[in-house]
Amino acid sequence: MGVRLMVVDDHRLLAEALASALKLRGHRVLAATAPAAGAAELVIARAPEVCLIGTSTPAQPGIFDPIVRIKRERPQVAVVVLGPVPSPRGIAAAFAAGASGYVRHDERIEGVERALMKARAGEAAVAPQLLQGAFSELLNPAAQPDDEGQRLLQMLTPREVEVLVRVADGEDTRVIAAGMGIAPSTARTHVQRVLMKLGVGSRLEAAALAARTGLLDRAGPVRGAPDSGAP
């Protein structure tokens, strides 16, 4: 039996794509919306079984305040957070606010669906490896805070960063090639290298990963960046 749910995410396009994928799997999506002043009010008014809330900054103070309000006024609504690899503080904040689960943004749709079903059933929906990673970091804290967006950015050449920004803007290979003044085959090679380095299987996944980790915000103005010499 499908879940009656809502999808709330910073990036409206991603929220709508996720909602569409869940609809195709038989779930009833009441709304797909970007967070705004009225997001909590909308969830409270529609009272879904589960609310899936996306965030790129789970450790930011106050980021889960909407969950606190939702759980206070609609305690029967289960909330699952969709976000980057969390720090111990981030995952603790989500559950302290009343979340029933935490799912990584790069999880497959099957994993997201399992989390929704577990949350509806009143179970904690969090992958064991996330908890293990959180405990490991608490016991052996890193010298520097983990910044996934910055780490991913350092893996890419300036040319690949520009390609990623263009992919996130929805440009296809032909448009990327024209905009960068390179051959379509070269543009295609750059795209494939970006996907490989980010460990994703599609352009949509690459755009989602870049958006959720804040990589695009850190990239800054990259259009016309000098070629690194790679093909």
TrEMBL record:
Which keywords label this protein? DNA-binding, Transcription, Transcription regulation
Q: Which residues form the HTH luxR-type domain?
A: 149-214
Domain Response regulatory: start-end pairs = 4-120
Keyword match Membrane: no
InterPro entries per the record? CheY-like_superfamily (IPR011006), Sig_transdc_resp-reg_C-effctor (IPR016032), Sig_transdc_resp-reg_receiver (IPR001789), Tscrpt_reg_LuxR_C (IPR000792)
The name on file for this protein is Response regulator transcription factor
Record organism: Streptomyces antnestii
Q: Which Pfam families match?
A: GerE (PF00196), Response_reg (PF00072)
A Gene Ontology biological process annotation? regulation of DNA-templated transcription
* GO molecular function, a single term: DNA binding
Taxonomically, the superkingdom here is: Bacteria
